[in-house]
Amino acid sequence: MAGLIARARLAGRPSIGVRRADVGWPIVVGTPAAFFLAWLLTVSLQAACAFVLVLLVVGLHQYDRRWGIVAMFALWFLAPGLRRVLGLHTGFVENDPLSLAPFLATASLAALELVQSHVPTQIRRILMLAAAGMALGVPAGLLLGPRAAVYACGAYLGGLSAAVLGFNERGTLLRSSTLRAVLLYGLPAIAGYAILQRILPLPHWDQNWIDSADFNSLGAPNEGGKVRVFATLNSPGALAPLLALSLLCYLTIRPRHPSVALLGAALLVVALQLTFVRGAWIAFMAAAVAHVVASRGGSARLVFGTGALIAALTVALSPVSQTAHDVVDRFSTIGHLSVDQSANDRSATVSQTLPKAIAAPLGHGLGSAGEPSKLTGSNSELRAPDNGYLALIYQVGPIGFVLVMWAVGLMLRAAWIGARDQAPGQELRLLLFALFFFTIVELFAGDEFYGIHAVIFWFIGGQVLGYEFRRRRDRERERRRREIPVVSFG
Length: 490
Known about the structure:
mainly alpha
């Protein structure tokens, strides 16, 4: 009887990743939510959309965890485009509430999973290490600009919270990864939209946004009417790393349907080239080499062969295609960065700003760099940071920077150990190591600690920590099993 009661209790307990049939909570939550939504509609259409989208992501997560994670990533990918569509009809809203929706959705799912599942103490300590490093920039940030500091703190910690979501995938890493599925099947569609931006007239919402935002870095070389594509994201610099991450997924797996995989990879390659973002290609090549090294040369033929094919096709098309010619010219400057204006400007920014960052032990404050700095009303030296490491050390100081990078180093170590482990699921762990290494290199060219790139980065960090925790736990259990003396009778 006691056993039946225990099983009944377990059956009624919600668990991560299991669909829930309870229909009472939508009624309890839905009624006040409906009144709140009605009020938001009187304030701002963008605010009402943000509220609905966050609730949708949370509701899907509570029904089925995998759907919720996919919806969260989809919100990150599509929210900027949705903002442009709404702005076409309502005008662009300063400090758009819809820009907060992805951050709120990510933090909400992480909070729910912290409540519904157990995160071991050693994993919490690593995440708290990174959080403490970021928090050191809060006091100075509040003095500089409270709104910017609060927004930046929520943005950076919200990205970090994705590590909890990644850690809770430790039970599926022998078979699959939600992130890999999103990168494999979601990004080719976004790449297709980016290509259409290049070959067709821009949609009204995109053109209106470009005119209103007054961007000066979207123009394509030698083609006055063309743009560097950005798809549903806010800029080519935001789109390119995502395309490169997805391309890494295609280059390091053996698909069941090669023709479909070839089409997806082709879309990614073309779109990535049309962004004209060299930093993403450099990080991609570094991650490809890292994958080959971690696999002990096992992936060399696939990775290097595909890379050589892409380069050969681009060069072959350059005489007949102005776009291909521009791509070749753009990336030929990688070997001559000393005479490149963009590279020189970035180098000058580092040499001028790094001494100031090191001189402030606790930093200049969260919100003094990147997108949040717009809320301070001042002209920040790092309003558009081209170096994530520089932006971080400038905001939180050397002490905070060391704490954050300490946590990153522990994650990188776990990723390396998992990639080298020849246990079942090694193919996926090799990919996770390459993706994590990509972001570490890409941080030299962009603020990957912010936004969707940060969410992916910390999500992978949580995944590799989850595998390392599981591996150690299994080894400890095996050791204890062997130490138990065998008692024989008779």
